[in-house]
Amino acid sequence: xKFVNPSASVHHITSSGNPLSGENPILPSRILGVGAHQDDLxxxxxxxxxxxxxxxxxxGVILTNGSGSTRNPExxxxxxxxxxxxxxxxxxxxxxxxxxxxxxxxxxxxxxVKMANPKEAIQEMFEILTEMRxxxxxxxxxxxxxLSHIATLNVVVKxxxxxPLIDRPKQLFGCEVxxxxxxxxxxxxxxxxxxxxxxxxxxxxxxxxxxSGRSKNYAQAIKGRRQRNATFLDGYQKDQFQHAxxxxxxxxxxxxxxxxxxxxxxxxLEEFQQEIRRGLSF
Length: 282
Description:
The chain is of the alpha/beta class. Helix content is 38%, strand content 16%. It has a single domain, classed as Rossmann fold, CATH 3.40.50. It contains 9 helices and 8 strands. An 8-stranded mixed β-sheet has the order 1-4-3-2-5-6-8-7, with helices on both faces. The protein starts with 8 loop residues before the first strand and ends with a helix.
């Protein structure tokens, strides 16, 4: 397929190491992760990456060029274009290490994705989904506080709703990055233990030194969050696992009678309020 941005790319991970024929071919993939920035997938959905290695393949899509992110001091002098190239290369390294089927980087400026109706990004996502036919999608959750993450979720949902119902993914999950999901009422919270493949899990979060290190130690923070999730999941039982990711089921946004993002969020927040009120009703 042809992309809007000339710098956009598809990187395939093939057993032979040889490039595939065709202009940016999109391979079928059972599981798809969609992130706003390079490193989001590795930080939020290792569960999906691990599952994809075993069944049907994991592919990733990154919407923005990542040029506005916090930088390590040695990368501060770089122009936005050169820094974006660094981040693209880091993402490809992670895809190679993780054994992804493909990583697609659309390289939109964040401001373009955060528009009220980012038509070009939605159209690209629709074309990718039509060609790839993923059954399961992991992306950002609607309670994330990073506006580019919310905008990415918006693009994903709108692109899915453009598809015929029979062709839509069967499942859509929201994951945590810039706001944890530990507060979610139990009826909405998904828990994914990720104790297996510990070495790979840590390798992937360390693939992004351009912004993770002296300025912000994201790799250590993500590891701590996953350990915290496992320990603080239940105060009345022994830990069943040591590392876990939290998520929320967003399937109601893409079904035959889809709910709006706003109404779904109101439903979750109302349940949260009721849970708090029940706890205070001594």
